[in-house]
Known about the structure:
Layout: H1 11-14, E1 46-51, E2 57-63, E3 69-76, E4 79-88, E5 100-101, E6 109-114, E7 121-125, E8 145-146, E9 152-156, E10 164-165, E11 173-178, E12 184-189, E13 196-201, E14 208-209, E15 216-222, E16 228-234, H2 239-250, E17 253-254, E18 260-265, E19 272-273, E20 281-286, E21 292-297, E22 309-314, E23 321-322, E24 330-335, E25 341-346, E26 357-363
Antiparallel strand pairs: 1-26, 2-3, 3-4, 4-5, 6-7, 7-9, 8-17, 9-10, 11-12, 12-13, 13-14, 15-16, 16-18, 18-19, 20-21, 21-22, 22-23, 24-25, 25-26
Amino acid sequence: xxxxxxxxxxxxxxAAVGLISSSRASVPSQQPAAQEILxxxxxxxxxxxxxxxFGGQNAEAYFSADDKQLIFQHQDEGVLCDQIYTMPVDxxxxxxxxxxxxxxxxxxxxxxxxxxxxxKILFSSTHxxxxxxxxxxxxxxxxxxxxxxxxxxxxxxxxxxxxxxxTHSAGYNAEATITRDGKHxxxxxxxxxxxxxxxxxxxxxxxxxxxxxxGYDGGPFWSYDGKKIVYRAEHPQTPEQIKDYKDLFAxxxxxxxxxxxxxxxxxGSNKHQVTRNGAANFAPYFLPDGKRIIFASxxxxxKNGRDxxxxxxxxxxTGQERITFHPDFDGFPMFTxxxxxxxxxxNRNGKVPHETNIFIADWSD
Length: 365
């Protein structure tokens, strides 16, 4: 559910192109040349880029703790709702790897992550409520996100077996990630009547609510040392904004117009706003140094709001630098443990408009 004002974030998980008809995906015989992937101004920080997926909508690709595997969500003509896939980052012969589905193939899934031990995965799914895709939202009130109240968080072995439900409270439970010591999970839930950030132990116990401001708080990620959480938030301020938010929320919808990046301590203390640009900022992730954050934003496209790019910013909101310049969507960035490689999702190099694929590049800091 981390997806167009916005017209574009939605295509990451809503458009249907390409073809996967089973649990394994078809891939091309060879990689595109690196110079076909990166623009000249992007090569200040990104080198040796490779395309890892080909066709459909692929997003939210995150590394395993040993940086050898990726877990991500995929949708296309043969997979009508997002499902979770894994794939190796590198192959012995250097060819494109073949992704393997590890979710049930039923309902809609989102926000997958590896346990640091490597023996389990984490993701959210609606399959327990129905094997069918959840209904699409009503766009008669403008661009909105659906908040499906049948999402629950699950764990499974890396091959998808031994599926176990981790959350049981009614409402939306998704957007989960885990600390690098494997002890604590942070996630987003509506269990108390609003969209807030929570933590729980790795087994689902000891749930704690960290945010309580009216509005959407979500998309949280831990810092590498597990002491801080970075997240996105939209807090309505005016009476008109508050009414609009509450009316939509009552229908299981939100309007993601102005998302800002925030940081708080692991216990919810010391909340502070990082960005103040009035744009749609999302998918924040700490750099390994714990001082900077990489995130996606459409701040360079105030007229249409369709062009999302990656930016790096200090935690105090200073020193912002633009990383990608492709005139379409770039988002969902994550670094390897050593900070030497970056993975992200992008519309670049697609065979059809708004096709979204996963890319990886060496990071030059």
